[in-house]
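Hey everyone, long-time lurker, first post.

I ran two proteins through the pipeline my lab uses and got sequence/structure pairs for each. Pasting them in order. The first:
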Amino acid sequence: MKLISYALPEEPEIARVGFVISDDEFVSVAQACNTQDTFSLPALTDIHSIIEAGPEVWKKLTALEQSIQNNLEDLERLRIDDVIILPAVQKPSKLCGLALNNSANTDRILSGPKHPALFTKPLTALVGHGQPILLKGHYGRVHPEPELALIIGKKATDIAAKDAYDYVFGYTVHNDLTSPTMRNEDSFHYRAIHPAKEGEDIVYVDSHVSYSGRYKGSDTFSPLGPWIVTKDEIQNPHDLNIECHVRDECYASDNTQNLFHKIPEVLEFISAYTTLLPGDVVSLGTALASSGKPGRAVQNADLNIMGGPVSVTIQSIGRLSNPVKKV
């Protein structure tokens, strides 16, 4: 099933959830539950209440979603263009991103870890499908990064790779906006202090480090959506075509099979250090293959100059599109 988070224009502060029935329309989950007497479900007011309800409720919802396909005349259809589309999840405890997790990067990485490299983004970076990406001039260069993201379904601590998919609720689309300008401004080349091998003396080690708080985590730097597709509908998350467009121009055309570290390894690694909670987001790394035009890459698409809209499309999931607004 596809679950969309939305708010009504007259009640923008109330998050609701719907069953997607087409690229343009959906029906309220709450209304569907109320009209189907055979389904005994708890109060499912938003996407987080659904995720936290657990697998037995998910099965009932899947059955409900399938049953209403033949009875849509009994339900009010809502148009996506007539509501406020919220981020696929609105209050994750964290959004975990993976750095340089694409085989297209291997010849560009001069040195780095063999394990997944992790960074986090704040929930204030989240923005829904159709909502504006807000850019300020002093952000400098800002480019899109098209990524497959998964939504965690249950608490995960020190899990084994073989069990990883048991902890996945579903998949969505993430645009991991990045400002190389702010990354450069927040990078240090310095002499790190290390303890000497013997005695109480210290040694200095030449080091390079950058902190991702601004260049990855500024407000609206994580469009997420347009909805969640539950994991039962995605046979292989590592064989999905993914594209990124700015206006009508394609800047990336790739496949998730090129992700270097796959989901089982990624979730085992993250959960060894950080507990993942229901509703958390794990974004699996940027699709970097060129669109085919010589020299073109997502890094060429400076949204602060080009504007938008910018969109990311992933096979079997959907198209996430956002306008760009200068503020």
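...and the second, right after it:
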Amino acid sequence: MRASVEPIVGRYVRCDIEGRPHRVYFEEAGEGIPLLCLHTAGSDGRQYRALLNDEAVTKDFRVVAYDMPWHGKSSPPAGWQDETYQLTSAAYVRQVLAIVDALELDRPVVMGCSIGGRVVLHLAHEHPERFRALIGLQSSAHVDRYYDTSWLGRPDVGGETYAGCVSGLVAPTSPPEHGWETLWHYMQGGPGVFGGDLHFYNLDGDIRPRIDEIDPARCPIFLLTGEYDFSCTPDATRDVARRIGDVEPVIMKDMGHFPMSENPAAFRTHLLPVLDRILALADGG
């Protein structure tokens, strides 16, 4: 294979999140409308590697994917050894806004998957004026725990076990090399981080009582969900769209819970029309 250098640039931003200093790693590529990408529980921004390399996207969008604190190349804040990581909806919303401000992103589009797909609903409810559009991948208002997660914080649990927990969420039709790379990211998660994220996903992030208050006229919302997802099911996304109103959900054939990383070629065929609509809105269309 001929050597090539990808156009992705990785850097750190130092900023305060909830009054504590953080050093947050992010990667970016392209120019134009900011597109901030949020990864899934227990993983990191590498899930958006294909999107960052997609010239059809980066010619009009500045794609930014960051690792949440405690994830990937973003370390926990000082003093982490004396606390237990547990993500809440309020903390997640403030985190996203802090990154937007630190990187000086002017009314970005935010696209999140799984826990990221949930928090975009919170952003739509609480801060619609801050965003040009919101894209929810695998978005649901709530997901009941379907297996015991209390043991995820044990010191002898991690790596392959985390990957095993989510392996069934990768569609059987996804290319094996992408599916396995998606699982590899989970194998590298820090102790207790996956379980801490699931606190938001299964408990604190429940937005069912407020879904009807979201107004898509204040910020356009797009929902895309893989047909094989048994965590955030297609029906769960359809229910969110129905309750918000004026949102047409897209159920992606042959896709699972991690569309952008497990099958990037198929995913882009669904995403590009959404980005075209956002560009048209930016042009006044």
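Reply from user beta_strand_b:
Welcome! Quick read of the second one: The two ends are 43 Å apart (CA to CA). Residues 80 and 184 are 24 Å apart (CA to CA).
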